[in-house]
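Dear colleague,

Thank you for sharing your sequence with our group. We've completed the structure prediction you requested, and as agreed, I am returning the results in plain text so they can be pasted directly into your records. Please verify that the sequence below matches your submission; if there's any discrepancy, let me know and we will rerun it promptly.
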Amino acid sequence: MKMIEKECTAFVEELASAAPVPGGGGAAALCGAIGTALGHMVGSLTAGKKTYAEAEPRIREMMSRCEILQRELLELVDKDAEGFRPLSDAYRLPSDTEEEKRLKKEKIEQCSKDACLVPLQIMEKCCEAIELAGEFADKGSRLAVSDAACGAAVLEGALKAASLNIFINTKSMDDRIFADQMNEKTQTMLQTFTKRAQEIFDKVAGQLNPVL
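Please find the predicted structure tokens below.
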């Protein structure tokens, strides 16, 4: 059974166990899907309302994009597990002889590179979803503006969580060119979109609570 087909309770229990997967990357992908869905909910509560008729075409475009992102992020829950299992297996390879040590090191290096790819995709999709959350906060129903900001906050957490799953792998890589490229992409997204998510949250929080 795919992880995304498990009941919430079963998924959380497995996450809490000593099993190698799911882990931080899968959790990040799931949170990203949840954050995206919160933005989509704002669209659902806005579409068809006369008050927001002018914004309706764009709202529906954003909802369609959110549906795609939600599905892709859920798929990445399992893909992250698929990407990490080979690395977990590589660490258990024998290393009694010099040849075994060399082969194990090479396998860990390649699997570490592969294990970075899904978290990077998670980050990219969360970045797009954060921008959509900002638009939902601006254009969507005022009755649901808090949900748009909630979405941005959840997506910020998912973005940060996914980044750590890249950094932990690049830290020990021998191929520093690849590692530096991955780190630069990751850091750029972190700096740009954690700031953007916080702006969305602060703007909505200020609207809801003038004391903030």
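Summary note from our side: The domain at 22-205 is CATH 1.20.120.680 (Four Helix Bundle (Hemerythrin (Met), subunit A)).

Kind regards,
the structure core
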